[in-house]
Design a protein that fits this description.
This protein is an all-alpha fold. It contains six helices and two strands, in the order H-H-H-E-E-H-H-H. The protein has helices spanning 2-16, 26-37, 42-47, 66-74, 87-99, 110-114; strands spanning 54-55, 58-59. It has a two-stranded antiparallel sheet with strand order 1-2. Helix 1 packs antiparallel against helix 5 and helix 2 (26-37) packs parallel to helix 4 (66-74). Belongs to the protein kinase superfamily. CMGC Ser/Thr protein kinase family. Lammer subfamily.
Length: 139
Amino acid sequence: PCDVWSVGCIIFEYYMGFTLFQTHDNREHLAMMERILGPIPSRMIRKTRKQKYFYHGHLDWDENTSAGRYVRENCKPLRRYLSSEAEEHHRLFDLLEGMLEYEPTKRLALSEALKHPFFSVLQLQPAPKAWDSNRDISR
């Protein structure tokens, strides 16, 4: 499941041209995740070993700091990054939402992601033979 998350982040980067979570700070990373993907599920907050990042079941994050303002101004809900209203763009973001699901048990497996409607336009056909072994080339 974590590999699928990483692939989702990479696909987003290919689409937009920049990384989804541009930070090395753990707390800021969590704030970006909440801003882009919505609140972290309370069950996950209760089970984390990183309780220092949370207070009363919510991310302990001050939006009035320079980092807080940066996240507020530069991160937006995932679907707001759509650059087109075309159907294939909506299918891509549906795929990304499945790949970036917080809950690992609800996140798309790689095999499921590959069967997603976004990829349906890629009709898998047998590769053409590069070499026909019955052909006589001796002349």
